[in-house]
């Protein structure tokens, strides 16, 4: 099973190709075998992977999730993802029914069950089975679901040529309503914005907060570059504390590029020299047009290219080993 689009194996061009033949062999083998999905301590085939229609994750979007990448036999930033999952759970009074260590073991085991070295994990914790009432006290035990598969959110050409974005009318949910820091299963706010992007023929939607400042995109953090200085909205603007976002801060420090958190307006995006988005699924991807305005030269810039190149090196070289 592939999320969004078939995996393009040529995407390894920017990173190390070490073990490429083994990766292709594993990918082919994984494609030919039945996917195994972890549900509450058991592995089930894709056809048998079912949850109750009374699970409040389905009925009300009451639950949390993480999207996690693994590259070259290593899970990237696993500890940070799990810490964020536990933070989300604590915020909505959801007791995860296993320890962080056990969750890590289960996630690695799920990848091994599917014989993958490169791919994506969707880790879900629902409130569990209850009745048709809203009260979460009716749900006696949360459910844990782990799906390991392959992913290609955008074709490789998008990383070379850049994306187009449009500002959507749907505002980002404010922290006084449902704090964007919680990665909840209720993603309708983002879905509505994504629909607007689709209807406009754009690749992504730029979401503003209630103050009219840029928050983030539907599934990505946003960065702009002006005169060699990188800017990104602060978490207080409604941006998710993205894992890939934090990697950009690390790479900027390593490369000696100044980076700041500050309020950003649409005007700032329009006049930027460069722009790129970050997310676990999207990785780091450039933007070349916003609301019909060409950003910079209309081509991905030098700093964006350096970010993408270094990110691909880091993801291929670091992470939690899967098979050892």
What's the gist of this structure?
By secondary structure, the chain is of the alpha+beta class. It has helices spanning 20-32, 56-60, 78-91, 100-113, 156-161, 188-200, 243-255, 266-270, 302-317; strands at 2-3, 36-39, 42-45, 63-71, 74-75, 119-126, 143-151, 163-167, 204-208, 214-217, 221-226, 229-232, 259-261, 274-279, 283-290, 293-294, 320-321. Strands 8, 9, 10, 11, 12, 13, 14, 15 and 16 form a nine-stranded mixed sheet that branches.
Question: Which key features would you list for this structure?
Answer:
31% helix, 9-stranded mixed sheet, 324 residues, 8-stranded mixed sheet, alpha+beta
Description:
It is a single chain. With 324 residues, the chain is of the alpha+beta class. It has helices spanning 20-32, 56-60, 78-91, 100-113, 156-161, 188-200, 243-255, 266-270, 302-317; strands spanning 2-3, 36-39, 42-45, 63-71, 74-75, 119-126, 143-151, 163-167, 204-208, 214-217, 221-226, 229-232, 259-261, 274-279, 283-290, 293-294, 320-321. The strands form two sheets. Strands 8, 9, 10, 11, 12, 13, 14, 15 and 16 form a nine-stranded mixed sheet that branches. Strands 1, 2, 3, 4, 5, 6, 7 and 17 form an eight-stranded mixed sheet that branches. Residues 5-21 have low confidence and may be disordered.
């Amino acid at each position: 099973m592939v999320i969004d689009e078939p995996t393009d194996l040529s995407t390894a061009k920017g990173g190390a190709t070490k073990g490429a033949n083994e990766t292709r062999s594993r990918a082919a083998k994984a494609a030919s075998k039945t996917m195994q999905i972890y549900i509450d301590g058991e592995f089930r085939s894709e056809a048998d992977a079912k949850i109750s229609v009374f699970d409040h994750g389905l009925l009300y979007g009451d639950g949390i999730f993480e999207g996690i990448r693994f590259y070259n036999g290593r899970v990237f930033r696993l500890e940070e993802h799990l810490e964020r999952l536990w933070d989300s759970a604590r915020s909505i009074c959801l007791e995860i029914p296993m320890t962080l260590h056990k969750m890590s073991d289960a996630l690695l085991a799920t990848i091994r069950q599917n014989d993958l070295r490169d791919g994506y994990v969707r880790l879900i914790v629902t409130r569990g089975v209850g009745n048709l009432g809203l009260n979460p006290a009716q749900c006696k035990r949360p459910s844990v679901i782990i799906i390991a598969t392959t992913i290609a959110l955008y074709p490789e050409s998008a990383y070379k040529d850049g994306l187009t974005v449009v500002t959507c009318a749907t505002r980002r949910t404010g922290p006084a309503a449902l704090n964007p820091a919680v990665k909840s299963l209720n993603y309708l706010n983002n879905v509505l914005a994504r629909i607007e992007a689709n209807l406009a023929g754009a690749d992504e939607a730029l979401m503003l907060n209630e103050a009219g400042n840029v928050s983030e995109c539907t599934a990505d953090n946003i960065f702009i570059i002006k005169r060699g200085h990188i800017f990104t909205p602060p978490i207080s603007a409604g941006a998710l504390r993205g894992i890939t976002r934090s990697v950009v801060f690390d790479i900027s420090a390593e490369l000696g590029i100044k980076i700041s958190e500050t309020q950003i307006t649409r005007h700032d995006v329009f006049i930027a020299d460069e722009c790129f988005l970050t997310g676990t699924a999207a990785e780091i991807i450039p933007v070349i047009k916003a609301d019909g305005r060409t950003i910079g030269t209309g081509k991905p810039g030098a700093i964006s290219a350096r970010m993408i190149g270094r990110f691909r090196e880091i993801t291929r070289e670091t992470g939690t080993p899967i098979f050892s």
